[in-house]
Specification:
The chain has about 220 residues and is mostly helical. It is elongated. Helix 1 packs antiparallel against helix 2. The longest helix has 19 residues. The protein contains eleven helices and no strands.
């Protein structure tokens, strides 16, 4: 710390603990993830200028609180973060915070409200964010439409996602998006289309060496 500007080390420590919290959340270690959040906040709180960093931490906190069913706390954290990102005019982070709020609404089975929020995000920010964030929005809209029974719209969005992944050469993600399309076809009774898609996916997963996915698609085929 003596060799760096006053805030540099605690800011780096806070960022590292935030990343660790997300990694622990990602692998399902939710209690440890929450503990890492507290450590991150302690380091960041010692910084003179910390509003933006704490907002980033708030989005991670919202994700971590969701598995504990502490949805109100999570929603408040996401909303505070979104307001901060609006002040900083960081559109990618604004969208990330809004999508996190949509996830919380999904958890409450408030699908119409979640889709309404995501549609607002799409209208206002879609052309202003990077491709990765665009795909995040499209994925969540597709999921929301699917949960509302709007399967035609869900298929349109999943097909858009697949096209983006294909264009970028992201074969594994493209296959997973196509899998959602096949599952929707099966769920609405379009069995011949579903079977064709599942058979094609099985070959693609085999080509990619995705053994687990190939086995699961085989079960889908068997059910059809």
């Amino acid at each position: 710390p003596a060799d760096s500007p006053s805030d540099a080390v605690p800011r780096l420590r806070g960022a590292a603990w935030r990343e660790k919290a997300y990694a622990l959340y990602y692998v399902g270690q939710f209690t440890d993830a929450e503990a890492a959040l507290f450590t991150a906040e302690r380091h960041l709180s010692s910084c003179i200028v910390n509003e933006y960093d704490l907002a980033r931490l708030g989005v991670t906190r919202a994700l971590v609180l969701r598995p504990f069913a502490r949805l109100q706390e999570a929603a408040e954290a996401a909303e505070i973060s979104a307001k901060t990102f609006i002040r900083f005019a960081d559109v990618n982070k604004i969208v990330a915070a809004r999508v996190t709020t949509a996830h919380l609404l999904f958890s409450r089975e408030s699908f119409a409200e979640a889709v309404g929020l995501l549609e607002e995000v799409e209208r206002e920010y879609f052309e202003k964010v990077g491709l990765e964030t665009q795909v995040l929005v499209l994925n969540n809209l597709a999921y929301g439409y699917r949960k509302q029974g709007q399967t035609d719209l869900a298929l349109v969005y999943y097909d858009m996602i697949t096209a983006i992944y294909d264009e970028r050469g992201m074969a594994t993600e493209s296959a997973r998006a196509s899998w959602n399309c096949a599952a929707i076809a099966a769920s609405v009774g379009n069995l011949s289309v579903a079977l064709d898609r599942f058979e094609s996916l099985g070959r693609e997963f085999d080509r990619l060496g995705m053994t687990s996915e190939s086995a699961l698609v085989s079960l889908d085929r068997a059910e059809v």
